[in-house]
Predict the structure.
Amino acid sequence: MALLEIKNLKKVYTARFSAQQTEALSTVNFSVEEGEFVSIMGESGSGKTTLLNIISTLDDATSGEVYLDGNPLSKIKDKEVSAFRRSTLGFVFQDFNLLDNFSIKDNILLPLVLSKTPIEEMEARLAPIVRNLGIEAHIHKYPYEVSGGQKQRVAVARALITRPKIILADEPTGALDSKASQNLMEILKGINEEGQTILMVTHSTRAASFSKRVLFIRDGSVYHEIYRGGQTADEFMDRISQSLTVLSSRGEGHE
Ligand SMILES: Nc1ncnc2c1ncn2[C@@H]1O[C@H](COP(=O)(O)OP(=O)(O)OP(=O)(O)O)[C@@H](O)[C@H]1O
């Protein structure tokens, strides 16, 4: 059974003060196996954020279903959604989403504090994660005292601390320079090699080349996919670029 299964997902937005409707997702079908690292690419407005928001339980689908470990997300009761999200999903966003008034350590521990984890357990989980991510020396600082790349590593630490089933990353390198982006992607690749499943939305072909599979979304549905297989990151990046060129220049059909 796939870890994540997206079945016939459709999302239509209805404008609040008019009858105007936008079909953001038409029919999305795909699945992610445990241990995979999958990127989602597509032009602006193709529905990537909408898709990630529905998988994140931040938004509801118009129809279709998302299954995690075989369980339909739409059946989770409203009052259980926050706890589900906290314990099962790890989030990494483009703009880090750290709390400025919390130290780095408190930002990382926040999901565990909210789920009332004992202090000894929190400390035991924190130590290896901050060591692996190279942010050990910064945990008593505040977000405004560290670089963008370090902030994003803090966000990754916060995502990992709950031992989520899947990490959902939305443009994680979007606010980083090329060196920090490379560093972050190497970290995500390493985490994936240790078994963490990752689903990432990105515009960056270089970032996507670190994943094992790339899904291309267009006009609200998955249009094409490629696997890295035995290719090097550079070879895979060339294939991703070629696919994007073909897809943006072609109206219909598969490669
Ligand atoms: N809250 C909303 N209300 C109405 N329409 C929306 C809403 N959010 C998104 N849309 C529309 O749904 C479509 C898909 O948007 P979405 O943000 O998912 O695209 P995207 O691929 O993430 O784009 P980008 O790469 O620019 O972030 C677009 O046409 C967008 O205008």
User: Anything to note?
Assistant: The chain has a mean pLDDT of 92.
